[in-house]
């Protein structure tokens, strides 16, 4: 999906909050809305990861006090409505943001390669040694001392 399509879908989910606000978290319509919103959020690029994680942490709980198999009081939807309001703010933040980096796909960034220069880098001028200095350095450094004594790897019979 393209980013525009995802943002349109999230905008529709924002408008759908009004229909599910008087329900509870166990209602089928809410579960359907929540699953569809999460599916859309998964399609977003990684630059939206902070908002997606905050949305995932919302619990949308309704609490009720049970006595046996019957409810002793009506369900308390304060937490549910507070989480719906927070979800609406998060989704509005995602839809409202315009991120220039999101226009490119991540794979496009990886595919872009920097052109290699045609010429090797120029050497910096430094102190130049004379031929005599170079020969003197080669003579002393190349010789190794002669080995004397017996080798430990060779055993006599």
Short structural summary:
The chain is mainly α. It is built from six helices and two strands. The chain has a domain at 3-102.
Describe this protein with a few key phrases:
two-stranded antiparallel ribbon, mainly alpha, 6 helices, 157 residues
Q: What can you tell me about this protein's structure?
A:
Helix 1 packs antiparallel against helix 2. Helix content is 50%, strand content 3%. It has six helices and two strands. A two-stranded antiparallel sheet has the order 1-2. It has a domain at 3-102. The protein has 157 residues and is mostly helical. It has helices at residues 3-20, 28-42, 49-57, 78-96, 106-111, 131-142; strands spanning 66-67, 70-71. The longest helix has 19 residues, at 78-96. A hairpin with a 2-residue loop joins strand 1 (66-67) and strand 2.
Write the SSE topology.
Elements: H1 3-20, H2 28-42, H3 49-57, E1 66-67, E2 70-71, H4 78-96, H5 106-111, H6 131-142
Antiparallel strand pairs: 1-2
What integer is the average pLDDT?
A: 77
Helix vs. strand class: mainly alpha
User: How many strands?
Assistant: 2
- Strand percentage, roughly? under 5%
* Sheet of most strands: 2 strands, antiparallel
**Helical residue percent band:** 40-55%
- The N- and C-terminal alpha carbons lie at a distance of 82 Å
Q: What global shape is seen? A: elongated
The tally of helices reads: 6
Which blocks of ≥5 consecutive residues have pLDDT under 50? 102-106
The string of secondary-structure elements, in order, is: HHHEEHHH
The whole-angstrom Rg is 36 Å
Strand order of the largest sheet: 1-2
